[in-house]
Amino acid sequence: MSLPQSLRTSVTPPELELIASQQLIEIIPLIAMEKTAFISGAFGPLRPPLKAQIPLWMAINLKLKKKCHIVAPEWLSIEFLQSRLDEELSEPGFSQLPFRYAEVSKVLLDVAADDIQDTDKVRSLLKDLKEARQAKSREGLDQLNRGELSLSNLCSMEINEIRPFFVHAMGILTHLHRDPSAGDDQLE
């Protein structure tokens, strides 16, 4: 969702990708490495060809050095994404996706596209899914009122995109619906 500069007060997409890089992901190491301690924890040992779980940032580093293959998460498959897209188009609510699916999928498709089956179709499904979810977000914001607004199953990138507009709109609605007996009965 493209927003005017005045409403861009949220975290940037690259910052969200950095946060998502703490997620654990499976790899198939091509090198042996003992258990190694980092600030965020100890990971390893890595023993080819056994799979190992490490943070995304470490997997990216090893992948760029050609020292591992990244195992795509099960949700980054054509079957899973197609089922979620079908659900998104047929159901009123948001389909359930991993909270950081947008950030993780972007990083994996940028760095490890060769480890993901049929990347063009996966990219296309992710794009369609994003567009369908954005359309639902816009519909929900069109019905914005001071009461409860439930947008369950939104992901971090989607929350980040609508946050500035939502906060601004709720401020205006609160101002418009102020109780006149509270002392401020004139609108600016």
TrEMBL record:
Predominant localisation class: nucleus
Protein name stated in the entry: DNA replication complex GINS protein PSF2
The family this protein is said to belong to: Belongs to the GINS2/PSF2 family.
One GO BP: chromosome segregation
Domain GINS subunit span(s) in chain numbering: 75-171
Subunit and partners: Component of the GINS complex.
Organism this protein belongs to: Gymnopus androsaceus JB14
Source domain of life: Eukaryota
InterPro entries referenced in this protein's UniProt entry, alphabetically: GINS_A, GINS_bundle-like_dom_sf, GINS_Psf2, PSF2_N
Subcellular location: Nucleus
Domain DNA replication complex GINS protein PSF2 N-terminal: 12-71
Gene Ontology terms: cellular component: GINS complex
Keywords, sorted A to Z: Chromosome partition, DNA replication, Nucleus
